[in-house]
Amino acid sequence: MAELDATLERLRTLAEGGLEQATAMPPAIYRSAEFHELEKKEIFAREWLCVGLAADVPAAGHYLSFSINDQPVFVMRGRDGLIRGFSNVCLHRMMRLVEGQGSCQRLVCPYHAWTYDFDGRLLGAPHMKQTPGFEPRSHHLPAIRTEVWEGWVYVTLNEQAPPVGELLASLAPLVAPYQMQNYVSVALQDHVWNTNWKLLTENFMEGYHLPVAHRATVGAWMPIEDTRFPTEPNDHFTVQTFTKDETARYGRAHPSNTRLEGHHRYTTVMPSVFPAHMYVLAPDHLWYLSLRPKSLGEVHVRFGVALAPEVVANLPDLEKEKAELLAFFDKVNAEDRFVVEGLYQGVQAPLAKPGRLSWLEREIHDFTCYLATRLAGWRRSESLSRRQRAAS
């Protein structure tokens, strides 16, 4: 506990110091088993987590599986069009009901064929009629709190968590012009990377590494000096914007796009919704990551891509475009995986020491403040008040 207390105190000190003195977080943040267990309890068991796009469950009976710590869950679109979340564990012998993404007419447990409707009700259980007092319709899969916001499906185990729309209210005006809820999903993949989840989260947030780590892919199209941070720091998300010039293969509005005007036609919004949902929202496409720690040094990575509807409508060969797009993002993800797995190796080193952050890494400090708020009892408002009093 002494080591954990020291790590939390260092985290609180980093948050308190503000961006002017900000450094990367200390190695213990990424390699401490105690810190990892605290994250699972205070963050992943309490926060809203992104399952994916509502477009990935397009019709009644379509489902998408997920997990919150050790709790398997799935979301499914009902016959009424609503998306609901449930425990992904059979009520009989606790077998996992579904895997990955798919669709069905009824949910049938692969162990003993207990069968559920789309609203979680148990419809039938073979060979149970002679069991005294057993009534299938009195059984119901435990519901998981689920909300859809701007086309994203979020779940939480915390019944007291404020609604997603309330937490992300100041992000809504930045993403609303793109109407991303209408984008067409073209890919969803699940991977496991050998790193700590926070290293991948931080890597996604900052553009400082783009000209180096991504020089063969997206780095050449992003003038990092044009990076902007359009919102004040807050406890729920951080966001940056950047533009794409005429040479960019992806990231500019299709000629038939009538939604976007002016700078929006070549501006990309890149939110990171705490703790672990990040996406790049461009006029012609979006791609995202949703992360869950598998262990201290392993992270479940959900990766998805969607295209603006006018892009899909004007493609002569959608399958060919999808293949080319995924091949491109495979390269981007390989570049990132090399970096974040190398970072995890680096933080194990006895001589590892965090350095000063660039102005381009402001969002890493935002993330530091988020962690300090959730884990170390730090409060942004109190800290700002103290700094304002000191300045006066």
From TrEMBL:
Assigned keywords, A-Z: 2Fe-2S, Iron, Iron-sulfur, Metal-binding, Oxidoreductase
InterPro entries assigned: Rieske_2Fe-2S (IPR017941), Rieske_2Fe-2S_sf (IPR036922), Ring_hydroxy_dOase_asu_C_dom (IPR015879), Rng_hydr_dOase-A (IPR001663)
A single GO molecular function term of this UniProt record: iron ion binding
CDD domains according to UniProt: RHO_alpha_C_1, Rieske_RO_Alpha_N
Necessary cofactors: Fe cation
UniProt keyword annotation of Transcription regulation present: no
Record-linked Gene3D superfamilies: Naphthalene 1,2-dioxygenase Alpha Subunit, Chain A, domain 1 (3.90.380.10), Rieske [2Fe-2S] iron-sulphur domain (2.102.10.10)
Pfam families listed in its UniProt record: Rieske (PF00355), Ring_hydroxyl_A (PF00848)
Rieske domain segment(s): 48-155
Family annotation (PANTHER family): CHOLINE MONOOXYGENASE, CHLOROPLASTIC (PTHR43756)
Protein name: (2Fe-2S)-binding protein
Species of the source: Hypericibacter terrae
